[in-house]
UniProtKB/TrEMBL annotation:
Transmembrane segments: none
Residue intervals of the PDXDC1-like third domain: 472-577
Stated family: Belongs to the group II decarboxylase family.
Top-level lineage group: Eukaryota
Necessary cofactors: pyridoxal 5'-phosphate
Pfam families per record: PDXDC1-like_cen, PDXDC1-like_cen2, Pyridoxal_deC
Cited InterPro entries: GrpII_AminoAcid_Decarb (IPR050477), PDXDC1-like_2nd (IPR055103), PDXDC1-like_3rd (IPR055102), PyrdxlP-dep_de-COase (IPR002129), PyrdxlP-dep_Trfase (IPR015424), PyrdxlP-dep_Trfase_major (IPR015421)
Comp. bias (Basic and acidic residues): 28-40, 698-707, 745-761
The PDXDC1/PDXD2 second domain, residue ranges: 360-466
One GO biological process term: carboxylic acid metabolic process
Coiled-coil regions listed in the entry: 583-610
Protein's name in the database: Pyridoxal-dependent decarboxylase domain-containing protein 1
Length: 761
């Protein structure tokens, strides 16, 4: 690495090369050290303090790129002549290496931090090349003949607005070229329509200036027909600029013809930092132009040494990796994409959107509902006979499931670097782009296999959730007190709301009483410890509260679930009303008790007389003739809600019988679960966990326990009811009944039950 520096005959540069060599040796030594406890690699030069342990492991090549920034600051302290020689050498070497690696002959390079900055400079160069008087007349030249910049409809968002802001052009100077609709990929530029638009602009007196093509679109990685676009640009004198992630494959031995055509374009923008896992490395725009004066005016070249030093981190990293290291990293990323693509082809219900792009390093897939005709679980979406609203609802439902799938996969396999995105035509999809993430995250083939395994494990839940959605909707609509809420953006079996007695159905504003009921309902359902996930929503408080039910498996008993929700919500509402009524009854009872106690006190004064109230006389009178007065008070029966006298308590020394409290409300149907069976699960006979014999024997045991627990009480009631009946049994039958009563123990008492037989005698 220091050999190129020593070629410059200067003692200062030789010394700098020596110092750089020592720094590299220290870097390699620090990388070889291992921790004594777990044996993992240490990150050399880890920053102490709050950032310690929070910086990702960027590897040796990453440290080399970071070293380039500090080395650039050191180089900038040299005198002007030495600095000019060194920066010119670094810039020319880096440009030559990049042009050779990516097959772009006789090109120049512009290094920039902002990825879109290179395209803006290229547009300035195209304007200066096509408008000779632009330097003198400026905007007047553009006003007389407006330039047109053509962008694909699949271009990255915000690119056209950025160009107009940087160039000072109005938005009508941008022309959005649609993609194919009938033939070819729906993410490729429609070449025939583009040619028609160019002819129309020429007829209107406008100047077609520049065309931005994609070698790997930002969304799905599709490549435009660059060869055909190049011919069209040469015909009308348009500058062709190419960008995209597929340009990285130019470094490989085999390149597809569509990507290889990018080597003949006028300019291209590449991002070697993410491709090679190099942090803080600038993007590069390669271009071909013969006039150095125009490139200087456009800002593509500069005489400032600081601008030339931008290439230093990339210069160090390319020398450290070498050609074999660069090709190996790009090849590894492409192999990961091909591995995932081949694996997903074998997985049912997964659709790959880049199946025709065999050389694309980007894989985009989604879960879809279309199934073979023999499987009635799901149906194809969209269907021609479906209404537009139904198609849109199914589209949103499928998008919600794909969004859930993408988030689950990102958590389970973080090394995959997945991205969830929304496409205009296909909907929500999951993207795997290892060229942009594998070098940084260290993605391996084992991670791809784990990703496929996770996808296969989530598919049964997705399919069963789609199957149970309609059943859940029907059960909710058939249950009184429940309202089905259509929310296709929720990735679950459905959304339900309980309508209480005071619910205003015509209003959608927040309801405090409903929020209280749904909060209690959520707590009760979570206490059941089922496999379902429940959530209260929506998140914005301007709408009424609802209960969101999550993903479900195929053995979910929807009828039991809906009935439990309705019964639990009804119980919470009734308990809330009982508490409110009890509060009012207690308040009125206290007031009534105070009035009655005051009346009783007045009556006692009248009975005892006035003399007994005089302090001294009353004591003497009470000693000669004591008053036999009962202690009168009031007791409040919470169950009956009535005020009663305490006289029976003092006379008979016993509390009142009161009224039997009402039973706790519950569901109309109680389901007995087998051992180990969770709530809302269907009992599957013949399954691996429970066999038919064990299930039947357990149900018989439950029935026997019920008969034994209720037997003695039923026999006692029957015996007592036959005492006064005209068709009463004979004394022999009574004695038999008496013997049975003596031998049958009561479940709540260990003594024999003989009272029933004694009553019969």
């Amino acid at each position: 690495m220091d050999a190129s520096l020593e070629k410059i005959a200067d003692p200062t540069l030789a010394e700098m090369g020596k110092n750089l060599k020592e720094a590299m040796k220290m870097l390699e030594d620090s990388q070889r050290r291992t921790e004594e406890e777990n044996g993992k690699k240490l990150i050399s030069g880890d920053i102490p303090g709050p950032l310690q342990g929070r910086i990702q492991n960027i590897g040796e090549q990453g440290h080399m790129a970071l070293l380039g920034h500090s080395l650039g600051a050191y180089i900038s302290t040299l005198d002007k002549e030495k600095l000019r020689k060194l920066t010119t050498r670094i810039l020319s070497d880096t440009t030559l290496w990049l042009c050779r690696i990516f097959r772009y002959e006789n090109g120049c390079a512009y290094f920039h931090e902002e990825e879109r900055e290179g395209l803006a400079k290229i547009c300035r160069l195209a304007i200066h090349s096509r408008y000779e008087d632009f330097v003198v007349d400026g905007f007047n030249v553009l006003y007389n003949k407006k330039p047109v910049i053509y962008l694909s409809a699949a271009a990255r968002p915000g690119l056209g607005q950025y160009l107009c802001n940087q160039l000072g052009l109005p938005f009508p100077c941008l022309c959005r070229v649609p993609c194919n609709t009938m033939f070819g990929s729906q993410h490729q530029m429609d070449v025939a329509f583009l040619e028609k638009m160019i002819k129309d602009d020429i007829e209107r007196g406008r100047l077609p200036l520049l065309l931005v093509a994609n070698a790997g679109t930002a969304a799905v990685g599709h490549t435009d027909k660059i060869g055909r676009l190049k011919e069209l640009c040469e015909q009308y004198g348009i500058w062709l600029h190419v960008e995209g992630v597929n340009l990285a494959t130019l470094a490989l031995g085999y390149v597809s013809s569509s990507v290889l055509a990018a080597t003949k374009c006028d300019s291209m923008t590449m991002t070697p930092g993410p491709w090679l896992g190099l942090p803080a490395v600038p993007a590069v725009t390669l271009y071909k132009h013969d006039d150095p004066a125009l490139t200087l005016v456009a800002g593509l070249t500069s005489n400032k040494p600081a601008d030339k030093l931008r290439a230093l981190p990339l210069w160090l990293s390319l020398q450290y990796l070498g050609l074999d290291g660069i090709v190996e990293r790009i090849k590894h990323a492409c192999q990961l994409s091909q591995r995932l693509q081949e694996s997903l082809k074998k997985v049912n219900y997964i659709k790959i959107l880049v199946e025709d792009e065999l050389s694309s390093p980007v894989v985009v897939f989604r879960f879809f509902q279309e199934l073979p005709d023999s499987d009635p679980v799901l149906k194809a979406v969209p269907v021609p006979t479906m209404t537009p609203s139904a198609v849109g609802r199914e589209r949103h439902s499928c998008d919600a499931l794909n969004r859930w799938l993408g988030e689950q996969l990102k958590q389970l396999v973080p090394a995959s670097g997945l991205t969830v995105m929304d496409l205009e035509a296909e909907g929500t999809c999951v993207r795997f782009s290892p060229l942009m993430t594998a070098a940084v995250l260290g993605t391996r083939g084992e991670d791809v296999d784990q990703l496929v395994a996770c996808i296969e494990s989530k598919l049964p839940v997705l399919s069963s959730t789609l199957q149970l959605r309609e059943e859940f909707k029907q059960e909710v609509e058939a249950t009184a007190g429940l309202l089905y809420v259509d929310d296709p953006n929720w990735p679950g079996i459905g959304v339900v709301r309980y309508e209480h007695a005071n619910d205003d159905k015509s209003s959608l504003k927040s309801d405090p009483e409903g929020e209280k009921i749904h909060a209690g309902l959520l707590k009760k359902l979570n206490e059941l410890e089922s496999d379902l996930t429940f959530k209260i929503g929506p998140e914005y408080k301007s709408m009424k509260s609802c209960l969101y039910v999550g993903m479900a498996s195929e053995d979910m008993d929807v009828a039991e679930l809906v009935e439990t929700i309705a019964a639990t919500a009804r119980e919470i509402e009734e308990n809330s009303r009982l508490l409110e009524n009890m509060t009012e009854v207690v308040r009125k009872g206290i007031q009534e008790a105070q009035v009655e106690l005051q009346k009783a006190n007045e009556e006692r004064l009248l009975e005892e007389g006035v003399l007994r109230q005089i302090p001294v006389v009353g004591s003497v009178l009470n000693w000669f003739s004591p008053v036999q007065a009962l202690q009168k008070g009031r007791t409040f029966n919470l169950t009956a809600g009535s005020l009663e006298s305490t006289e029976p308590i003092y006379v008979y020394k016993a509390q009142g019988a009161g009224v039997t409290p009402p039973p706790t409300p519950s569901g109309s149907r109680t389901k007995q679960r087998l051992p180990g069976q969770k709530p809302f699960k269907r009992s599957l006979r013949g399954s691996d966990a429970l066999s038919e014999t064990s299930s039947a024997s357990h149900i018989e045991d439950l029935e026997k326990v019920e008969r034994l627990s209720g037997g003695p009480e039923q026999i006692t009631l029957e015996a007592s009811s036959t005492e006064g009946h005209p068709g009463a049994p004979s004394p022999q039958h009574a004695s038999q009944s008496e013997a049975f009563q003596k031998g049958a123990p009561h479940p709540e008492d260990d003594h024999p039950q003989v009272e029933g037989a004694e009553s019969l005698r």
